[in-house]
Write a structure and sequence with these properties.
Layout: E1 13-21, E2 25-27, E3 38-46, E4 53-66, E5 72-78, E6 81-82, E7 99-102, E8 117-125, E9 135-143, E10 148-150, E11 171-179
Antiparallel strand pairs: 1-11, 2-10, 3-9, 4-8, 4-10, 4-11, 5-6, 5-7, 5-9
Amino acid sequence: MAKIKNLFLSGQVIQVKSTTLTGPASYTGQSNPDGTGANLGLNVTLTPKSSNSSFYVMCSIGVGSTTSGNTWAILLVRDNSRVNAGMGAAAASHLGGIWFKSVDHTGNSGTDTNHGVGATGVYLDTNSGTAGIATTFSARGVAEGGDGHINYVESDYTGTGAGPVSSRTQSTITVWEIEK
């Protein structure tokens, strides 16, 4: 009897998992760009069904800000280590990693804490997992000084009649396992 080599076709989506954070989240003390950031709860754990797959990761942050008025970012982490994407020597420093970055405030010359900016990023991780061994991808918060926030603006503005300014957002991380 012939042995079946592979159960999946090249390019086939094997599984999709997603986590959505609907409430506000904040983090402090995560300005070290060489670290792995603050765990915001945007984590997806999946058990690969193939040892010959890639992982397509999409992260969308509705709005983010920092109290320092500078850059905030999301750092992609896999199994508690930053994803480095083969960046050579830069991978070992703050230059390496897969970052989804944004500026802090918008409007009024960038100092109005009632406004913020969202960010979306995608990444194809071609490092195969091992079938049957769980892998966790995390979208973690890093801020250039100060406290970081997602899903709400820094001032936590709640003014009436302000529409989108006072609205809360949501953030999502989605991971697709795809056969190579």
